[in-house]
Amino acid sequence: MTTPPSTSNLARVLAAGHPAVAVEISPPVGPNPEALHRQIELLRGIADVYNITDNQSARIHMASLPACIMLKEAGLDPVAQFTCRDRNRLGLQADLVGAAAFGITNVLALSGDHPVCGDHPHVKPAGDIDSINLVRMIRMMRDDQVFESGQPIPKRAPDFFIGAVANPFSPPFDFRPIRLAKKIAAGAQFIQTQLVYNLDRFREYMRQVVDMGLHEKVAILAGVGPVKSLAGLEFMQNQVAGMDVPESLMDRMRRLSKEDQAKAGLDIACEIGEELRQIEGVRGLHIMAIGAPTMIPGLVERLGLLPRPTL
Amino acid sequence: MSLRTRLQDRPFLLVQAWRMTEALLSLLAKPLRKAGLERASRWVRPVEKPIKRLLFDCQMCGQCILHYTGMTCPMTCPKQLRNGPCGGVCQDGTCEIDGETPCAWVKALERLPRTPWDHERLRINPPVDWQLEDMASWVTLAIGRDQVTTGSDQGPRYVTEILD
Lengths: 311, 164
Known about the structure:
Shape of chain A: globular
Radius of gyration of chain A: 19 Å
Distance between the termini of chain A: 21 Å
Low-confidence stretches of chain B: none
Order of helices and strands of chain B: HHHHH
CATH architecture of chain A: Alpha-Beta Barrel
Largest sheet of chain B: none
Number of domains of chain A: 1
Structural class of chain B: mainly alpha
Shape of chain B: globular
Low-confidence stretches of chain A: none
Order of helices and strands of chain A: HEHEHEHEHEHEHEHHHEH
Number of helices of chain A: 11
Distance between the termini of chain B: 43 Å
Oligomer: heterodimer
Helix content of chain A: 25-40%
Strand order of the largest sheet of chain A: 1-2-3-4-5-6-7-8
CATH class of chain A: Alpha Beta
CATH topology of chain A: TIM Barrel
Mean pLDDT of chain B: 92
Radius of gyration of chain B: 16 Å
Strand content of chain A: 5-15%
Number of domains of chain B: 1
């Protein structure tokens, strides 16, 4: 791993050996900065970095980059997410240069859900480049100071802390650690995983990752997703691609009244978060509370992860 | 089960066909190079396209990596991924777009150990050069234009380079 840039709070927290906390923020759908500012005030001081999604679930939202700029101006450290779905290499690089110009260091490369899964099923996916080659391209921009065409980047090389994602719950399971290794070889420095509900599967994945020594080459943040209700859990299982929610968790929620479900949702997220922190190779948590951002501060508090280190 | 699926699931014949094609192409490399990519491609494409369309549902990306991907065309993936399956594969191995079509990469990785090129699962395949789309990949292969990475990247080509 190359020396992490000091402009990334996430990199500093990880380098100091603290367990890291990342929180996902979905930007507003309309041109509504107030909605984003409410989330910023709700979540300030709760995490080390804040991921801003890029047309999450292939549904239209404000772009990641302007929302990241708003976070940066509010004094929070953002992670700009870049999917390969909506932009070709020209567009991706243009936004990467823009991110660097605003001092946004943390970037996360992912394939992105296919448009047919979202609210614009009639659009053409870019599909110009895959997420592994996107990681590779970002690394080339930083380390070799060149664009993907080979043209030199004028003035200075952009400073990036490069992230990628992993889904241990999607078949073929024996290939998932190899795909992770490809991302590391391409230049990934931190990894954020899909939400963990099936702990057995995740432990098995991490065992393979540790056996290959990959956990020493990349910082893995495991996904935690508090839900407010049984409906929230069912949404995860049925509507979110590549998710694995065990039947036992569903049953536990089914037995409860509406009011008790919200409490149980938080309990479950806490239990999973605590278990994840014990697993070798897990360097932090990545909290994605789809439709339930108000649950996040309480969850981080209960996990004993507050206050966040100031470095 | 279609004939195509049967051939791909037991890829012995396809492996032999690939080997013969590769040998033939190395013999033809000189004249093809002399003719130039555009012209040679115009001659070869009418032969290559129908054969590979029938056998692999080939999408004519012009930079074939079939023998790295278990004789399964990665361009049939709706996201056209060249480096393995995305995180949207359903528990039963189907694609996120409809939950019915088998994931092209699940199939590719099932079939790869039945070919002599299983170690290629560790290869980082470069992004597609869209200038080669609809060119004959037999020509781009013969003249060595098919796997040219854009830019100046000298990074690892196989994950084994980063493993201890």
